[in-house]
Amino acid sequence: MEPKQIAQQMIDFYKATFDNSFKAMTMLQEQNEKMVDMFVSQATWLPEEGRKALSDWINAYKKGRDDFKKTVDDSFQKVESSFADLNKG
What are 17-42's pLDDT values in tens digits? Predict the structure, then answer.
C-alpha cells in the first residue's frame, strides 16, 4: 500500500472518529438542555431575567458548538483536498 493511501485512510479514520464523538457529545448536550428546560419550567421562583439568561446561554453554547463543527469540517476538507492534489501529481 502506498504512503498516500495510508495517509488518506488515516484522515478518513480521524474524521469518522471526530464525527462520532461529536454526535455523542451533541446528544448529551441536548439531553442536558431538556433537563434544564424541565427544571426552568417547574421553577416558579425563577425570575424572567434568569430564564432569559439560561436561554441565552444555551443558544450561545449551540452556536459555539456549530461553529466548532464547521471549522473542523472545513479543516478536514482542506487536508483532503491537499492529499487529492498530491495524488494527481
Answer: 999 999 999 999 999 999 999 998 89
CB atoms within 10 A of CB 78: 9
End-to-end CA gap in the chain: 17
Residue indicated by cell numbers 473542523 = 72
Residue 16 C-alpha from the chain's centroid: 13
Report the largest interatomic distance among the alpha carbons of the chain, rounded to a whole angstrom: 67
Cα dihedral 38→42→45→46 (10° resolution)? 20
Dihedral sign for Cα 67, 69, 75, 81, please: negative
